[in-house]
Amino acid sequence: MLKGKRDYTIADIEALPEGERAELIDGELFWMDAPMRVHQKISMKLAVEIDLYIRKHKGNCEVYAAPFAVRIKKDDRNYVEPDISVICDRDKLDTKGCQGAPDWMIEIVSPSSKKMDYERKEQLYREAGAREYWIVDPETETVTVYDFASSPTPAQYLFSDRIKVRIFENLWLNLSEMDFA
């Protein structure tokens, strides 16, 4: 791949060597580092809690943890792998992943991904039609919640707060009860 090139496509993502991962936003390629252990623990526990809720309530949504392909704008220039994706419209799912915006995406931020998660992805997810977007920050033990459907500004929570999931009627999550140590 050419250094400095800014017109990558999903074909370039699919041609990456085994084990290498990147995301694509408006044709610009962003390499992904291997996540830290706490990142993986948070991702796993959140995905399990969400999946248990969906199954208990016989919901139609499906939850996927990264790596999971999201061709968010239904074009060949935008491809992301949110840490957790919840898709309620099964028509968006195909053998490769999700075509269009998931209903709810969660990113677990690391020091190297803050600008990407808080700026580029927030704008991309909003524009693509996501309903809800959470940014979980293990360092500050905060969760930033974007409810794109009803509020232009995000809400800020601590891990110790009970956080209402907007896309589900009765799901509240308290990250401090999930034991990430």
List the helices and strands and how they pair.
Elements: H1 10-14, E1 22-25, E2 28-31, H2 37-56, E3 62-65, E4 70-71, E5 84-87, E6 93-94, E7 97-99, E8 104-108, H3 114-128, E9 132-137, E10 142-147, E11 155-158, E12 163-164, E13 172-173
Parallel strand pairs: 4-7, 8-9
Antiparallel strand pairs: 1-2, 3-5, 5-8, 6-7, 9-10, 10-11, 12-13
Please describe what this structure looks like.
There is one protein chain. The chain contains three helices and 13 strands, in the order H-E-E-H-E-E-E-E-E-E-H-E-E-E-E-E. The chain is globular. A hairpin with a 2-residue loop joins strand 6 (93-94) and strand 7. It has 181 residues and is of the alpha+beta class. Strands 3-5-8-9-10-11 form a six-stranded mixed β-sheet, with helices on both faces. It has a three-stranded mixed β-sheet with strand order 4-7-6, with no helix packed on it. It has a single domain (35-178), classed as tt1808, chain A (Alpha-Beta Complex), CATH 3.90.1570.10. It has helices at residues 10-14, 37-56, 114-128, and strands at 22-25, 28-31, 62-65, 70-71, 84-87, 93-94, 97-99, 104-108, 132-137, 142-147, 155-158, 163-164, 172-173.
